[in-house]
Amino acid sequence: MTAFLLTLAGAALAVGLELLEAMAIVLAVAAERGRRDALIGAAGAVALLAIAGFVVGPVVLARIPLEPLQVVIGVALLLFGLEWLRKGVLRLAGRRAPSSALAEYLEEREALHALAPPVPGRPDWPARIVAGKGVLLEGLEVVLIVAALGAGKEGLAPALAGAAVAVAAVIAIGAVVHRPLARLPESHLKYAVGVVLSAFGVFFLAEGLGVEWPGGDAALLYLAAALVTASQIQVTGLAREAPA
Amino acid sequence: MIAQLRKLVLGETWTLPLGVAITLLAGVALDAAGPGWWHRAGGFVLLGGALATLVASLRRR
Predict the structure, then answer these.
(1) Cβ within 8 Å, pair B16-A83
(2) What confidence tens digit (pLDDT) does each residue in A54-104 have?
(3) What is the mean pLDDT of residues A26-54?
(4) Is A184's Cβ below 8 Å from some Cβ in B?
(5) Which residues neighbour B37 within 8 Å (Cβ) at sequence distance 6 or greater?
(6) Which of B20, B23, B25, B38 should be substituted to probe chain A, the one whose Cβ sees the most A Cβ atoms within 10 Å?
(7) A207: CB partners within 8 A, 6+ apart
(8) Concatenated DSSP letters of A68-107
(9) Cβ-nearest to A82 among B16, B24, B28
(10) B28 and chain A: CB distance < 8 Å anywhere?
């Protein structure tokens, strides 16, 4: 049950935050260049992501035996998790700008504003490419994280359920964009995702290398606690140091 | 695009992939050296490796 709930929460947070960033880019393109081209670009990227999801899941991961698969998934989750955690620590310590999809939206609008205006009646390829690239890059991380979390003992169900919750939440936020976006504590949420993904990474890597965790799935809780303690010590230490 | 993909998979610093690789290799070597104790306590060694990697990546910015 612990693994199920943590997988669901981890997938929901990771997918939600990545989708939020993708949505910020698509909304910026829609506002500056037109909704149709933004949606066409995003739809093209979604089609490519569906292919990537099929290749990563049923084709590649399904063919690897359990123990090597756990090692592969553990390494992948550690790479993602520790990177999210590293950035999270730097943000919470004030050593990196806070994460903000709203700021990204405004920056993207400014960058698009500098481009030559679209020719009426012609496809706006720059807009489609910007929207498509944004969705593709953010979505690729979603595909890899959901596939990695779904490769655990609990199967794809909690990871997909978490992803579905995230999609619904992001659509709801998109419907009433500015205020909820500005209010989200994105830096803290991303830090939490880093903790969850790193805990799963250590857990799977160890299981793949023949380790039996004391307490079974409950090990995820003390792994997460250890990661929070160590990273908070780093946050305190970095915040005390003189600004770089 | 390629640079962004590399950043997406390996992160912004080489310290993380390097640290994870060292942790993995150490785990494989220790598993082969002493499967008995590794079976019971190896997870904590890997946790130590992950934490050391995190700390190193924060020091080398």
Answers:
(1) yes
(2) 888 777 777 878 788 889 889 989 998 999 999 999 999 988 888 777 777
(3) 89
(4) no
(5) none
(6) B20
(7) A67, A70, A74, A213
(8) HHHHHHHHHHHHHHHHHHHHHHHHHTTSSPPP-HHHHHHH
(9) B16
(10) yes
